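[#protein-structures] MJ: dropping Peptidoglycan bridge formation peptidyltransferase VanK-Sc here for a structure pass
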Amino acid sequence: MTTPLTLRPISADEHRDFIAGRSSASFLQTPAWASVKSEWRSESVGWSRGGELVGVGLVLYRQLPKVRRYLAYLPEGPVIDWSGDDLEAWLTPLVAHLKAQGAFAVRMGPPVVTRRWSAQQVKDGIADESVRRLGDVPPLERSQDGACVIAQLHELGWQPQGTEGGFSAGQPQFNFQIPLVDAEGAPRTEADVLSGMNQLWRRNIKKADKAGVEVALGERGDLKAFHDLYTHTAERDRFTPRPLSYFETMYDALGAEDPDRVQLWLARHEGDLVAATIAIRVGTHAWYSYGASSTEKRDVRGSNGVQWAMIRHALAAGAHVYDLRGITETLDADDPHVGLIQFKVGTGGEAVEYAGEWDLPINRAIYKAFQLYLARRG
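AK: finished. structure tokens for Peptidoglycan bridge formation peptidyltransferase VanK-Sc:
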């Protein structure tokens, strides 16, 4: 008979050491991320079997206005074995603990892939007028593990959440990633990754190099320069920028946990900052997290130059995946989001669908009031 799983609060050190012993986990499930999300109360929890720590989770608690009840949120987590057919054994002790902490609902984002599409399939979908969404295109691969997770969550009463808006704006369900290992798990070469990109990307990387764009790793003191360019990008592309203090906190917290966890990249042309990015890596998974680019000197292709430097760095660090983060599901050529998808598709990677975010209402009356509150805000 299998020893049952138990759950308890764990220290940040126990949490960090467990993740360090795994191939990878989302950076949103590292104990350092609690410092970045300081407006949420946080807790590290761990699952044990026979005294051995076998899973961990970062829980963020957001209090409802005027009542001591919380949404308990595990972004892109928890870090458990999602491949089995007994999720109930993992989730029952978690829900019991969170209920005792005053949670009216639990929200989590299982880090489980459900479908994949090749860059060519996405490109063909955009060109096909009858295709409006990625889901309209038959996938290259369907994950049995992903289907099993979704079926079990439905059976256990969890509810899938929409990807638009949300209490915390949510994490993207669709991402674009470049595999840095082949089907057998062997590392790809720089030449192989470059040959997988489309002609425009290869030409722009060459153009940046020929124009004299210099890409280098920055330091904490360079965050102000990054942020100035980022706010310029936000005005141009019409999104709300985060404050400089957010990036300083993120850089300090992630860097303190592991000096290789976060990198600031700067691309300059004749002394002018033309592109800047923030990259994060946990084990074998590397993410392009934030980016900024100047409107002037776009012709020197600093954005392509800095991306190529980040991809090469991820390869050298032994990463298996270079993750360009979220894309929307739309493949409608007239949709304004398609430009970003086309930029990412040019890298020759693949579109990846995750299981998405799921809620389990614990107190249904409060959860219903919470949903009405969100609807009014939205």
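MJ: nice. DSSP finds twelve helices and 16 strands in the chain.
AK: one more thing. The CA atoms of residues 306 and 337 lie 22 Å apart.
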